[in-house]
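Researcher: Next entry in the queue.
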Amino acid sequence: MSYFEGIAPVRYAGPEGDGDLAFRHYDPSEVVAGKTLEEHLRFAVAYWHSFAWPGGDPFGGQTFDRPWFGDTMEHARAKADAAFDLFEILGVPYFCFHDADVRPEGASFAESKRNFDEIVDLFARKMEGSKVRLLWGTANLFSSRRFMSGAATNPDPEVFAYAAATIKACMDATHQLGGQNYVLWGGREGYETLLNTDLGRELDNMARMLSLVVDYKHKIGFKGTILVEPKPQEPTKHQYDYDVATCYGFLKKYGLEDEVKLNIEQGHAILAGHSFEHELAMARTLGVLGSIDMNRNDYQSGWDTDQFPNSVPEVALAYYEVLKGGGFTTGGTNFDAKLRRQSLDAKDLVAAHVGAMDVCARGLKAAAAMLEDGGLEAARADRYAGWDAAGDLVSGSLEDIAARVVDRGIEPQPRSGRQEILENYVNRFV
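Model: Structure for this entry, 430 residues:
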């Protein structure tokens, strides 16, 4: 019997629809700005939070009792059955996974890989009879104690080698399943104290691993995008992939900026002291915006709570940056989000995704309407209009610019940034 027994596929019911399990704003076939909402949003379910997370937190253990929890291949196959049932109920086009999410750990690397390969083959068979596809795969290089000092940045070269072998297996699986991207998330690529850290060597080794990944992508003919995911502080105190700007500087230093883009998460942006739209705007401006993990953090907590999104204004500003950058190509909207520890039922897991998909749909439609209206872009153009007639400031020397000030005798006068007016403008759409 299915874990989701009695839960019908979720349908679009319109804004006035009844029931907890109906879309009110997400009609996958609705056309907005030239594409359907399904094509714009490219929703994906995160295997780890939805099917592998037991409901623990830093102060308490498992609260969820799922029939597929266990360390056998039978449990792993049951987990896959439940996952594809949920994909079907939600009608999502994509899912994402780490290797450790989908298979039990073996007594050796070889055994773990055999377990993984068997589940990947099972995924392939299930995908033949389903519309769901793989948005991206990735490797878990942070949970095991072997990675306590990092993976690519580990001081032990054998851990580097183990990480490389794991990445290769996950890239092969992603390629086999037709994945649209491959993600590297450096959960412990950083340090806790400089007293025992060779910073330069660790950065060089992290770049070498990423270069090996890029080389292997081309060798096997993988057409997807390689993505790096920024994350600050948690769990490592000083992360090398702190935020978008830090990651771009790293890619630029090692000549990888044309080969790698970024997978950006709302919760990680908040932990870095930024807003989600800031990180997306920075990535768009630098040309490295690839995909997003959509969630939210509790603003009263100083850690990554990974809650499902529920703020249309925040989501609208995020999708504004995505749409302004031309929309997703290989990327999409992955719900890197988990239920609260007290939300125990199958219905809770479905309802969480339904609500999040509706919030994203409302946000994207608001973003598209703002772009079409052009109010924000017009305000920005007006604010910087002086630069359109100031070519000598762009091409002139420091002496030329100084002479301009002396010769013209102009005393610049401050102009309003109109922030409140623009905030009111945004609120008209959300």
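Model: The chain has a mean pLDDT of 96.
Researcher: Noted, moving on.
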